Amino acid sequence: MASGTDTFVDKDSKLYQDFDHLYMNLFSTESIVVMVEGSDVTQPEVLKAMDRLQQSTQNIPNVLEVTSASSVIKDVTYQNTGRSEIPEDEAVIDEIIESDVPEALVPDQTHAVVSVVFSGSASEAMQEDILRETERSVEMALFPADYNIIVTGDPAFNIAMNEEMMSSMSLLLMLSVVLMVIVLYLVFRHVRWRLLPLPIVLLGIIFTFGAMGYLSIPMTMVSMAAFPVLIGLGIDYAIQFHNRIEEELAKGESPEEAVIDTVKHTGPAVLIALIITALGFFSLFTSSVPMIQDFGKLLMIGILMCFLSSLFVGVTVIYGLDRLGDNPIIRKLKPNSASKKKEIKTQDEGPDFLDRVIGKTAAISMRHPLIILAVAGLLCVGGIYVDTKVPISTDTETFVPQDMPGLIDLQHMSDILGGSDELNIIIKTSDNADPELLKWMDEFGQHEVDGRSHVYGSSSIVDVVKSMNGGTIPDDRAEVVALYEQMPETTRERYMHGNTMTMLNLNIGNAMGELGLEGIEALGEVIEEDIAWMSLPPGTSATITGRSMVFVEVIAALTSGRTLMTLLGLVLVFFGLLVIYRDYLKALTPVITMAMVVGWSGGIMYYSGMEYNPMTATLGALILGVGSEYAVLMMERYFEEKERGASPEEAMEEASVKIGKAIFTSGLTTVFGFSALIASPFVITSSFGMITVIDVVLALLATFVIFPAVIVFLDTHRENGKKKNQLKDVTLTPATGPAKNTPEVDLT
What we know:
This protein has 748 residues and is α+β, with helices and mostly antiparallel strands. It has 28 helices and nine strands. Strands 5, 6, 7, 8 and 9 form a five-stranded antiparallel sheet that branches. A four-stranded antiparallel sheet has the order 2-3-1-4, sandwiched between helices. A hairpin with a 3-residue loop joins strand 7 and strand 8. The chain is elongated and about 110 Å long.
């Protein structure tokens, strides 16, 4: 598993260097917030419970510090009386809270906060350990029974979200498998062992996990979505091999001959489809987000593993089962097996209902190609145009279930304490103790708070210096150094690194919810202009970073450029087919078919009110990967029938009947598999499932309606052109006899 900054941002980028190397490693801290709420949090028994909680959590490994109202009250009491304890007199407590306790620790009389602080660079496992130990400490603190204790904060929310996503994804994948079993049982009934493709593709998924380990490809929140995609694609490979070997056996061939013909005809066709699918996925590598690139790697490895599983394991198992059915012992144990095999071998005596529907659809498409292509083309162009107007969802809180306890607790904390988003300005200097630098930081922070409506506060080492020096900044460097030496080490490390780097934090509240990513990006640009306008002291420079700025870049990279990614995929598919076939017709036909699907998908998203999100923004490449496979398999069978002497119309009709059912079955299996994701409580996963289902249905529709019209129209036009050219090249024989050195030509 990987979820660090390097899964979102390229390690070589300046953004990563500033955020991860400087901010996260040197300054960043995270907090698990324990919020106490009840009738009166200033009661001595409540404060004593908070003190017990603080004493316990301070001993948790990797915790840097714990802050609470109880520690402040004990410190003040010690200064006044020489005893570090919680006073029993409520009036004394109220006086200390009013004069000395920060408002963030006791925002009102019914709420108090205990903040457990640890390094922002802590691993997920370390954060989870701290969270669990904090929860145990809350239980042992023995708060009064009528008080509500909430353990929340960004780390707690992220851990809860990961747990919810993993549990829901497991259930959804199980539901997906169940739905696929139902589809295979109902639709793939014309073959024996109709459920066999499912374990074959699951074996390919296991191979994929193994390859990920050997190649050190991490599992991320995006790559998790690859496995439903691989199940949908891989089961198509298994179904194609299964369908073809049963077709060959139905002709009366021996098992050996059936295997040879299956590998000879279906193997290259599926391999070509795999290559074209991989080219469609290759466009994912144009993304600047590492986890999207890993998503592309995983898809490419996965389809190869599923192909190998289908070719070597699937075909071998069917061959073995068929041979096993001929075993005399098996016949005695299962006397009906011979009659079932005979039934399979006579399955091609007449087309069933699905065969007739597919054949009829192809026939209508071939008879009216211009009308069909004109309507489809107009819808495609209109869809591509309105796709640019489809909104992009970037509010991460809307991606998760709105009734998730972790989200409710986090929102409740924000309502009580206000938002905690920050923009972090890292200042590089030659001297952190320069009074001029501190005065600039003080003036700049105040300017941003006064002049920018979404900047609610600033914090830096300047605040600590002023609090220790009567509210002013010393004019002498030596005095500043003396104050630094008196500060707790944890305080200095929070705001400074050595003598060459310091940090100024700007509190922007709940900017993610109020401004959105575009608003945060605009605010960052305004602050950069302010830094340039309020010139820094000589020899210093400033860099704006922080989680909000990183997330702006990540979402922009995920959601922008999706059109370019799709166009690149189409170009790669076209040239890939051209290299393989060296035939413009064979290269152009699948591309035209898939271009229609891309346009239709954008139109449906716009008119149905859907939104793109970081997960669905990559679906252009997935459409190409899934849809081009269907078109290539149909095209391979079409030209196989033509080589046997069929006309374009006859070849297309025969191909649609012979392979159409297998394509329809695999497509329907994929649709049902992805439909399980629609039931996900996570909006980001549910919308991914919905859009994928729509795109697979559109790909099937294009394969059975658009593809026949395109290939028969273009192929017939090409054949007619060849005949005309042949006639032009022929020199007719004169009546008096053949001309000298001119060969006779039989025009029949």
